[in-house]
UniProtKB/TrEMBL annotation:
<dbReference type="InterPro" id="IPR018222">
    <property type="entry name" value="Nuclear_transport_factor_2_euk"/>
</dbReference>
<dbReference type="InterPro" id="IPR039539">
    <property type="entry name" value="Ras_GTPase_bind_prot"/>
</dbReference>
<dbReference type="InterPro" id="IPR002075">
    <property type="entry name" value="NTF2_dom"/>
</dbReference>
<keyword id="KW-0694">RNA-binding</keyword>
<dbReference type="Pfam" id="PF02136">
    <property type="entry name" value="NTF2"/>
</dbReference>
<dbReference type="GO" id="GO:0005829">
    <property type="term" value="C:cytosol"/>
</dbReference>
<dbReference type="InterPro" id="IPR004330">
    <property type="entry name" value="FAR1_DNA_bnd_dom"/>
</dbReference>
<dbReference type="Pfam" id="PF03101">
    <property type="entry name" value="FAR1"/>
</dbReference>
<protein>
    <recommendedName>
        <fullName>NTF2 domain-containing protein</fullName>
    </recommendedName>
</protein>
<dbReference type="GO" id="GO:1990904">
    <property type="term" value="C:ribonucleoprotein complex"/>
</dbReference>
<feature type="domain" description="NTF2">
    <location>
        <begin position="10"/>
        <end position="126"/>
    </location>
</feature>
<dbReference type="InterPro" id="IPR032710">
    <property type="entry name" value="NTF2-like_dom_sf"/>
</dbReference>
<dbReference type="GO" id="GO:0003729">
    <property type="term" value="F:mRNA binding"/>
</dbReference>
Length: 453
């Protein structure tokens, strides 16, 4: 059994992570908080302004432009609090582009959360007047400067004592949490357990949302998006609502699937419409897919006995199809009220992890084989190049694989759909095109005959 971590070790590990993210990636720092967290920052008047909810805290942090500052931590003190919480006090320096040094004190209350911690309370205050580094050597020896010098000596002594007491300052190395955040810019703050070093970290580093955990250990993931549908919002049409929900899913890390609908008796207009997460429902045991169907994964070809024509099949071949459905309950329900459609129910929680930000280009809703790409692949095929080469050419034209908007499999599927559509009518289509030109152009003549060569 590994030794339990002290409150001081937890506080130091958290502070190392917190201020590194605050300086390098402040737009991600809000993921250390939850909706019930409270963040306090001083206003111009001197009063402390409190902010709650993740979205509010995110906006508040971004408004201060912490990425333009440099932080130097002089002391970190931590104590155990009620119900396993940890109280952390930080004193340090903050220097901006104007080279003005400010001494600050910041207080954190780290509350336990699913084998780790989140920031329950956060208060920040400046405790000294501003000092300009260029003017410090020539400034008069006022009482403020003397107090700063005394404070520097005191903090330096405290830092030395702290280092002697806790030689393993970076305890992330014991928790499978990378301490170099520059190599992992797309992640959340990882907070460690205070009772055991070898624990699962509480983080959603590779995803764009956050999760909560109930008493039974079941996790529910929520997208971290500012623009999202809410109950009561209205849309002009079902297509508009679907487009908005798809855009929300792209940012949130999940795909959307259209569900059923309800029409009033004797009416033709849809009164209730359902949209689901693509992982809604459960896989059907023993379900197979026709390999010869015209879908994105079909296989078209001649039968094994060669007795039938291309495109005709004597025996349907079945293949196994992997299913990613896991019973996700995330959904959006529209109901027609007057001439608009209103969101009557919205389930935001997912029972599966959300898609990583670096993998969002592979989501179905993020891939679009539009007319321009289809026409380009058609032109490439006329030059006797396959869809794989066409995909690489589009990569050069768009400036990268992540900017193409489709995958190589999408290009192959597009070629396959064209082949399935043509089938064994490739020669007949050419004849019909020439005859059609003959009908509309009196000076054009064509004749053909059928036979075997």
């Amino acid at each position: 059994m590994a030794p339990a971590l002290s409150a001081q070790s937890v506080g130091e590990a958290f502070v190392n992570m917190y201020y590194q993210v605050l300086q390098d990636s402040p737009e991600r720092l809000h993921r250390c908080y939850r909706d019930n967290s409270t963040l306090g920052r001083p206003e111009a008047s001197g009063s402390l302004s409190n902010t709650t909810t993740i979205n509010g805290i995110k906006a508040k942090i971004q408004s201060h432009n912490y990425g333009d500052y440099k932080f130097e931590i002089k002391s970190v003190d931590a104590q155990e609090s009620l119900e396993g919480a940890v109280k952390v006090i930080v004193i340090g320096y903050l220097t901006g582009k104007d080279n003005i040094l400010k001494i600050f004190i910041q207080s954190f209350l780290l509350a336990p959360f699913d084998n780790g911690y989140f920031v329950r309370n956060d208060m920040f205050r400046y405790i000294e007047s501003n000092i300009n580094h260029h003017e410090q050597d020539h400034a008069p020896k006022t009482q403020v400067i003397e107090n700063v010098a005394v404070l520097e000596n005191y903090l330096s002594e405290q830092a030395d004592v702290t280092q002697e007491k806790s030689p393993a300052k970076n305890i992330f190395e014991f928790c499978d949490v990378p301490s170099d955040w520059e190599e992992h810019p797309g992640g959340d703050a990882a907070l460690i357990d205070a009772t055991d070093i070898e624990v699962e970290t509480v983080r959603v580093r590779d995803h764009v949302g956050y999760y909560t955990c109930d008493d039974n250990g079941n996790r529910t993931w929520y997208p971290d998006c500012v623009e999202k549908p809410v109950e009561g919002c209205k849309f002009v049409s079902i297509d508009q609502a679907y487009s908005f929900y798809v855009a929300y899913g792209k940012k949130g890390g999940f795909d959307i699937r259209k569900g059923g609908q309800y029409q009033a008796a004797g009416g033709k207009e849809t009164t209730i419409k359902y949209f689901y997460c693509s992982r809604e429902g459960l896989p059907v045991k023993g379900k197979s897919v026709d390999k010869n169907s015209n879908d994105d994964i079909s296989e078209e070809g001649e039968s094994s006995n060669g007795s039938i024509k291309f495109g005709e099949f004597k025996n349907k071949q079945k293949r196994r199809k992997a299913s990613f459905r896991c019973g996700c309950l995330a959904k959006l329900i529209l109901k027609k009220v007057g001439n608009v459609y209103e969101v009557t129910k919205l389930e935001e929680g997912h029972n599966h992890p959300l898609v990583a930000e670096k993998d969002m280009i592979f989501m179905k809703n993020s891939r679009n084989m539009g007319y321009t790409k289809q026409h380009f692949l058609y032109q490439v095929s006329n030059a006797n190049f396959g869809p794989a080469i066409g995909f690489r050419l589009m990569k050069q034209l768009y400036g990268g694989f992540d900017r193409v908007g489709v995958t190589k499999s999408d290009c192959k599927n597009n070629k396959k759909k064209i082949s399935v559509f043509i089938g064994d009518r490739d020669a007949q289509m050419a004849v019909e095109k020439l005859i059609n030109r003959k009908l509309h152009s009196p000076g054009f003549y064509v004749n053909y005959y059928k036979g075997w060569f």
